[in-house]
């Protein structure tokens, strides 16, 4: 039953799919963040369908990423833009966090969105369905690592405060192992993915890129926020697709 509470929170927080979230506390939040890669698997499986359509791979990639944005309410893209504005301002942590809370998007946010989406579309056009599924898993696996014990929240309230430090130390490693096995299985079954090697390597590269950004955000802001988490998802997704394109 407790696991179901975590899954419901994960689905309700990370997707547009309607679920009834009956319990919300830090214990359930920790379970939700551990289960986040499974939600990524489902999101990638649905969002990647346009990439299977006959015709232009570039068009299929654009439609797939557009559908992914709809399925996630665009929250991760919004977080990416807000974090880019906050970090790009060069202001101290408090002022940078205030900038991130504003509803408008500044020049750094616009540039981050444009270049990230261009990179994702171009890379997906070279890879395809299996790579997008893997990238979606990698993006949500970054959340598991970002919410592990010892990672503080940058603010006393908000999503970051709810989930920060809720994941037990061993859980990210177990989630990573499961994600790697899933990526290897997808790679072995899916044609044009570079076999069972490219997708796991892409997943690790995506996770590594997200962890580097997490380290920088912690140093500049003092911890995580909901915007930081969203930016980690998009960063891991983009890096995974790029590496899969290079290796595929």
What's the helix and strand layout?
Blueprint: H1 2-14, H2 26-47, H3 57-71, H4 75-88, H5 93-101, H6 107-127, H7 129-146, H8 159-163, H9 171-189, H10 195-221, H11 226-247
Helix pairs in contact: 1-2, 2-3, 2-7, 3-6, 4-5, 4-6, 4-11, 6-11, 7-9, 7-10, 7-11, 9-10, 10-11
What features would you highlight for this structure?
248 residues
Could you please describe the fold and organization of this structure?
The structure is a single chain. By secondary structure, the chain is mainly alpha-helical. The protein starts with a helix and ends with a helix. The chain contains eleven helices and no strands.
How far apart the termini lie comes to: 41 Å
Q: What's the helix count?
A: 11
- Tally of DSSP β-strands: 0
Provide the low-confidence segments as ranges.
none
Which sheet architecture does the biggest sheet show? Answer: none
Radius of gyration: 17 Å
Average residue pLDDT: 92
Structural shape: globular
Residue share in β-strands? under 5%
N-to-C SSE series?
HHHHHHHHHHH
Structural class of the secondary elements?
Answer: mainly alpha
**Helical content, roughly?**
over 70%
Multimerization status: single chain
């Amino acid at each position: 039953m407790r696991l179901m509470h975590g899954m419901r929170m994960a689905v309700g927080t990370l997707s547009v799919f309607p679920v009834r979230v009956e319990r919300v506390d830090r214990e359930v939040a920790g379970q939700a963040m551990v289960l986040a890669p499974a939600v990524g698997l489902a999101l990638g499986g649905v969002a990647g369908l346009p990439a299977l359509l006959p015709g232009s791979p570039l068009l299929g990639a654009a439609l797939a990423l557009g559908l992914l944005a709809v399925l996630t309410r665009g929250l991760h893209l919004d977080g990416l833009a807000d974090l880019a504005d906050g970090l790009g301002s060069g202001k101290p942590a408090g002022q940078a966090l205030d900038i991130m809370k504003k509803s408008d998007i500044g020049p750094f946010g616009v540039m981050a969105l444009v270049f990230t989406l261009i990179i994702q579309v171009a890379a997906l056009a070279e890879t395809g369905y299996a790579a997008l599924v893997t990238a979606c898993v990698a993006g949500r696996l970054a959340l598991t690592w970002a919410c592990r014990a010892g990672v503080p929240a940058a603010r006393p309230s908000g999503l970051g405060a709810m989930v920060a430090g809720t994941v037990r130390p061993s859980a990210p490693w177990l989630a990573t192992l499961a994600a790697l096995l899933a990526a290897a299985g997808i790679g072995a079954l899916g044609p044009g993915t570079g076999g069972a090697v490219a997708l796991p390597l892409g997943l690790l590269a995506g996770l590594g890129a997200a962890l580097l950004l997490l380290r920088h955000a912690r140093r500049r802001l003092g911890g995580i926020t909901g915007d930081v988490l969203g930016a980690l998802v998009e960063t891991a997704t983009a890096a995974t697709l790029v590496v899969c394109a290079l290796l595929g």
